[in-house]
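Mods, move this if it's the wrong board.
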Amino acid sequence: RERPLHPVAMPLAMDMRVLLQSSYVNLIERLKVVKAAWILAESNRDFSDVPDWFDQSGTKEQIYQRLLEGLNAFDSAGIPKPKYLSRVVQLFNFNFDDCMSRFGLSWELAQHKVQESKGGRSVDPVVIILTMEMVSKQDLATIIERLRVVKAAWILAEGNRDFSDFPDWFDQNGGKKQIYNRLLKGLTAFSSAGIPRPEGLSEVVQTHEFDFEECMWNFGLSWERAMATVWAVRGAAWKRSKAKRRLIQGDCAHGAAKPLAMESWVDS
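Not the wrong board. Structure tokens:
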């Protein structure tokens, strides 16, 4: 007879190999699996006060410690823990999507359940990982690159085709604090605008080990393609407007002011 995995009989300890080989985002994804299992457990209905170990901010060591704390918390809270969850969520070759699928979990469904239990509308919350203290230690160019990833995701989202007026958070001018606030504003703007935000974008764009090219590649984004999309949409709109003016007024007289160059329209 197989011995069940029991958090009291088998207390979990931090495995330094998992800690060292896992990226910051990977550790957060491991914690998110445990959080989803806790939230979606059949008997768990009260989310007025979530446990301390739900917190996804801090160092890798702190995230991993909360992961273990969460795995050990099910029995004492009377919440059924999926069989083998403790083992699978600590595998070296852990994959977030595969793990969620194996246990029949869904991060989106878990978020929806929390919002419904609070009597609120289902939203796409953003967990603050990148703090202002951390931002102050980074160069301005890196913070702008983080914002550019979010802007590219917004521009290239399927169905988002109107670029006549960009959101104010697109502005890349100003100091670190201003750019940082626009980054967070952009991440929270997708849901209310009805624009799909790539899953995991919020966490990845806030990581300590952020790399612009790698982040863009992970989400299938391209800054050049985003700019080309803007040029194409705005160019087509300008041509339609110009054709309409010609029908009404005729061609402009020789020597009249020329329209603004396309490059000048593109947000930096």
